Amino acid sequence: MNAPLRSSLRFVLFTTGVAALGGFLFGYDTAVVNGAVTYLTAHFALTPAQQGSAGASAIAGCIPGAMFAGFLSDRFGRKKLLFLCALLYGISGLLSAVPRTFAEFLMARFISGLGIGASSMICPVYIAEISPEQWRGRLGTLFQLGIVTGIFLTLFVNEIIQGLGDKSWNTALGWRWMVGMEVAPAAAFIALLFAVPESPRWLAQRGHAAEARAILEKAGGPGHAQAGMAAIREAMGLEQGRFSELLNPPWFKPLWIAVVLMACSQFCGINAIIYYSTNIFAAAGGGEHAAFTSSVWVGLINLVFTFVAIGFVDRAGRRALLLIGTAIQTVALALVGWMFHAQISGAPLLVCVVLFIAAFAMAMGPVGWLFCSEIFPNKLRGRAMSLAALTVWVSCYAVAQTFPMLNDNPAIGPAKTFWTYAAVSLFSFLFVLVIVPETKGRTLEEIEQMWSRAKSNRRAEPVPR
Q1: Which of 243, 247, 287, 322 is 20 to 30 A from 380 (CA-CA)?
Q2: What's this model's pTM, rounded to 2 decimal places?
Q3: Fold designation for 242-459
Q4: Domain 1-196 part of CATH 1.20.1250.20
């Protein structure tokens, strides 16, 4: 590798790695309550309904966070919104550690939800807009890698803090340290953001062509910068940047593809397992230690198979990974349902759940975010990604609320619940097979032109008589 290429790769790895810290904080914040909730419940003498609210309050914040992030990023810039996300995470970590009442804790968690919802939209967009097309797939999966790394490491952070004292210490102080530790990575995120540039595509839209060209040159060299600026100028001439354009051709098709993909990524049941793994693995036998060990396996497989996506997304392509992943999901979830139906527990059940996690981690998890960040025009990308992220969080909330009811309903039970998730995965496979195009190796502007050409081709078709 020659020196200019090495320099470009270092620059892009640094900038996208910093953005991926938003994913790490997303994962940390999502997982930390699972370790703290037992002691939090004892400290505030929570009822079961209040205990559920402790987790759901963050999801409630994710919905408005995702809704408004697109408008704010389009108006004020991607980098400024990344700063806002980092501040929200830091404020939430601090306030979550010092609440005097449970209501104060819920407010702190709502603030963290705002950060999660906003970062789930802005981090993939920033990474996509600054990455050269030949690296964009692998770099785009860094956001998901950050999430699963945050989830995995949080298991051990909680375990270490829990071991510092007895149950009474953890009830009084331990859970505060668990949630408060989020301040450290949030502060690092804020500090590192000063060293990264604004999105070159956002700068070009705002008339800062020289700055945009300089960033593109750092990211891919003079040739990349020249071609990139020409493509951006051409794309800017074709688009109006109005939100209403998303509801009309040619942008309505990528919008509904993104919405369906993101809804399927949640209704396949991934967060039913992430949020309720202890209850699910109780069916596999064992006590608290077995439940923790099973959770570690889920976190480890989630992390390892995200590297599979990183390794193959720019080689095999987005469609191939999605097809393979959703096919495996369908089989694994169908087997989980059958095992509950046949009352088979133990290692076979754990293996099938882990197989589903592996399939999701290598495909639907990272590739869904990546694909959605690629398929929209520059001026509409922020708003469109907000709708995609909003779909994720509304769907996630629905799954989190309905899983206990479905699972505990004698007429439905875990078998039919997991068969329902398998049916969603089968639908996802067919949807990708028939509808979803490949975006591997294309610039963002080439992908934009693909939709425009498809619209033009439909207009040019002769009207049958």
Answers
A1: 322
A2: 0.80
A3: Growth Hormone; Chain: A; (1.20.1250)
A4: yes
